[in-house]
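Bug #2210: token dump truncated for Transcriptional regulator, TetR family?
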Amino acid sequence: MRPVDKKDLILKEKNKEVKDQILQAAKLLFSSRGYDGTTVRQICDEANVSLALVSYHFGGKENVFNALFEPLRHTFMNAHYDVNNSLEALRSFCRNFVLYRIHEHELIDILQQEIVMNSPRLEMLKDVFLPSWEQLRTILQACLEQRSIHFDSIDIALNFIMGTLMYSLNNPFLNRSALPLTPEQIADLAVDFVLNGLQTNY
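Reproduced locally. Full output below:
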């Protein structure tokens, strides 16, 4: 077995650091300016790296965009909820989604922009975001079967719930004063709002 080369380790760590800088800069700029309003040069300036490094590590702006959503893809695909207790599964799903939305608000902002613009990148984002919709649909179906909640249309309930969970309290246009709430308090309020909006039997 070949001994570990310290130079290789240092190079790998440096490459990871540079890639993380590029991704953080891109996330900030895509969120505030949109994908089309952001150039590779702006990303490099924000990340304080040379222009060639985006091509070297990612091959271009589109691949940077795709790489940004990999953590979100894994988060949604690896989330599991016990639908045997459907109401608790619904609570957990809503709470976890809101906490993730607060923690990674730039990513959800970018996603919302892409949906509104009906961008060509939505095809890729389907694989990222649709698993969460299917999870929620499964939970809602279990709630109906267990008679823990009642609603007339699962599709309307699904869209209204996701609309509530994706709403941003960070938007200064809609929120003129800062709300003295922790992420956990916001998540709990969102869960209460969803459950009160549905006809829950608890």
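Output looks complete on our side. The chain has ten helices and two strands. Marking as cannot-reproduce; reopen if the truncation happens again.
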